[in-house]
Design brief:
With 95 residues, this protein is mainly beta. It has no helices and seven strands. It is 0% helix and 25% strand. The structure holds iron/sulfur cluster (SF4) (2 copies).
């Protein structure tokens, strides 16, 4: 994937619960910068890294969800807005 379009919002790095629902708990490798951006602590080695019993880090294009304003949204997937305070499903648009 061409990473140049990534806004570094970190929304795709929040963890699902045991039912697969998104939570406001970030991946333990996600770093929150002072300027509001995020970065992955293990970026070069992230793919295939186990994050918990059920989750392995994978490619963004294989994500089951879309995220608010993410340039890599694709297909007819549920779209979410997620941060450390709340998870919100967006019904009114698909971007
Ligand atoms: S949700 Fe999209 S824009 Fe935000 S960090 Fe993930 S890939 Fe980048
Ligand atoms: S390991 Fe994967 S899910 Fe965790 S911060 Fe890095 S890219 Fe995001």
């Amino acid at each position: 994937m061409d990473d140049n379009k990534c806004l570094r919002c970190g929304q795709c790095c929040f963890m699902p619960d045991s039912q697969g629902n998104l939570t406001s708990e970030p991946c333990r490798y996600l770093v929150f910068n002072d300027d509001g951006t995020t970065q992955c602590k293990i970026y070069e080695d992230r793919i295939g890294t186990r994050l918990n019993e059920k989750i392995v880090c994978g490619f963004r294009c294989d994500d089951r969800f879309n995220y608010e304003n993410c340039p890599y949204n694709s297909g007819e997937k549920p779209t979410y807005s997620v941060n450390r305070k709340r998870v919100r499903r967006i019904f009114w648009r698909n971007t």
